[in-house]
């Protein structure tokens, strides 16, 4: 029996609409060919350009569409010259994280054999790990509300048992799923600074409590500074890493660097009921409208969406299509002859997206 799922689509700013269009085209084609699912799409206006026109960055109707949707697909958001009156960025994606309690920021890092990488990596090595960043609290807790006087400034880091226990449960579940599908050894690494901060000792204590419930998996710890070193020296040793919001924000960009740039870095922010899927990169208004944007991260984010929905709704075909889509993009990137400018090539947005379609559907 075919089930229809609705996707809330946030087109984004700058290059956002340009990379969203081919992504929705691919998803529409997959859904049309599927026998176990179909996809519909609801446009949800939001972002910096929308704020400049209307004074609203995330309208109530768009938030309602996000809440009602089965998943949320969000393109690059924000413009450097459009900000709130207090000078902070227009970031509806963060508003969605907080409103929908999307505590698990999932950042996969994958480098296949033959893929270009800044690392001097052994030819027989591949990188395949997932960084999970807590996305609703940590050092982002007082975002926009920090205390600033003439002589000092303060921000508050918050770590709660409620969110941390959910986060660690998610991390171990993901490690088990990866192990069961042959993508990882079933290891979870807690990345913290427990040797300095009591808050991170508390974080680690809750991690260890969850680890004890999973004797079939391996759990270990790493300080965040050492982790940054090891992500460069031996990134193939990691499987699933879980960390605080700010640490994850920094390390996820390092992970993107290992892959060659933000243009190939997908992401998801996942809660108990809702999830947002978006590329890690910005809106790049300097190249908007020129056909130069890299669509790979947006398409990979859509593949993550299919996989998450497939798991949540026990839809095998959806999970299979998510895997096929991910492998199609990774194959195009690793082959290396059709790459956009940011990856050292000359392909346009449409040419790059068409290459993914050919790899996925066997088009001539």
Please explain how this structure is put together.
The protein has 364 residues and is of the alpha/beta class. The chain has two domains: 1-104 and 265-364, Isopropylmalate Dehydrogenase, CATH 3.40.718; 117-147 and 154-259, Isopropylmalate Dehydrogenase (3-Layer(aba) Sandwich). 41% of the residues lie in helices and 18% in strands. The protein has eleven helices and twelve strands. It has helices at 16-33, 48-54, 60-68, 92-99, 161-180, 198-211, 224-233, 245-259, 296-312, 316-335, 349-361; strands at residues 3-10, 37-43, 71-74, 104-111, 127-134, 147-148, 153-154, 187-192, 218-223, 240-243, 266-270, 275-279. The strands form two sheets. It has a ten-stranded mixed beta sheet, with helices on both faces. The chain has a two-stranded antiparallel sheet with strand order 6-7. Helix 1 (16-33) packs parallel to helix 11 (349-361). It is globular, with a radius of gyration of 20 Å. The mean pLDDT is 94. Residues 6-356 form the Isopropylmalate dehydrogenase-like domain. This is 3-isopropylmalate dehydrogenase. It is an enzyme of class 1 (oxidoreductase).
Structural class: alpha/beta
CATH class categorisation of the largest domain: Alpha Beta
Assembly form of the protein:
single chain
Instruction: Label the CATH architecture of the largest domain.
Output: 3-Layer(aba) Sandwich
Order the strands across the largest sheet as they lie in space.
2-1-3-12-11-4-5-10-8-9
Q: Please trace the helix and strand order, writing H or E for each element.
A: EHEHHEHEEEEHEHEHEHEEHHH
Total number of beta strands: 12
Question: Kindly state the mean pLDDT as a whole number?
Answer: 94
Q: Report the portion of residues in β strands.
A: 15-25%
């Amino acid at each position: 029996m075919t089930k229809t799922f609705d996707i809330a689509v946030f087109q984004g700013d700058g290059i956002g609409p340009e990379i969203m269009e081919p992504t929705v085209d691919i998803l529409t084609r997959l859904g049309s060919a599927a026998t176990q699912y179909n996809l519909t799409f609801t446009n949800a206006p939001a972002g910096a350009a929308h704020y400049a026109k209307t004074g609203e960055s995330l309208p109530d109707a768009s938030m309602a569409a996000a809440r009602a949707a089965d998943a949320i697909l969000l393109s690059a958001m924000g413009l450097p010259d459009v900000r709130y009156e207090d000078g902070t960025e227009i970031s509806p994606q963060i508003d969605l994280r907080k409103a929908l309690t999307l505590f698990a920021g999932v950042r996969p890092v994958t480098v296949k054999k033959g893929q270009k990488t800044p690392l001097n990596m052994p030819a027989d090595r591949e990188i395949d790990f997932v960084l999970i960043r807590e996305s609703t609290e940590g050092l982002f807790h007082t975002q926009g509300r920090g205390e600033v006087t003439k002589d000092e400034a303060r921000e508050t880091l918050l770590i709660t048992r409620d969110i941390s226990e959910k986060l660690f449960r998610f991390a171990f579940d993901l490690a088990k799923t990866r192990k069961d599908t042959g993508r990882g050894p079933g290891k979870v690494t807690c990345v913290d600074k427990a040797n300095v901060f009591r808050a991170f000792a508390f974080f680690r204590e809750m991690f260890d409590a969850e680890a004890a419930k999973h004797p079939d998996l391996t759990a270990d710890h790493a300080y965040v500074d050492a982790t940054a070193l090891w992500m460069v020296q031996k990134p193939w040793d990691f499987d699933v890493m879980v960390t605080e919001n700010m640490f994850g924000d920094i390390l996820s960009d390092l992970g993107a660097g290992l892959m060659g740039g933000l243009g190939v870095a997908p992401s998801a922010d996942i809660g108990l009921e809702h999830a947002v899927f978006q590329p890690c990169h910005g809106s790049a208004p300097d190249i908007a409208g020129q056909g130069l944007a890299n669509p790979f991260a947006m398409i990979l984010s859509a593949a993550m969406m299919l996989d998450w929905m497939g798991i949540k709704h026990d839809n095998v075909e959806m999970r299979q299509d998510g895997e096929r889509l991910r492998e199609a993009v990774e194959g195009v990137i690793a082959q290396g002859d059709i790459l956009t400018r940011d990856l050292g090539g000359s392909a346009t947005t449409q040419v790059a997206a068409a290459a993914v379609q050919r790899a996925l559907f066997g088009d001539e």
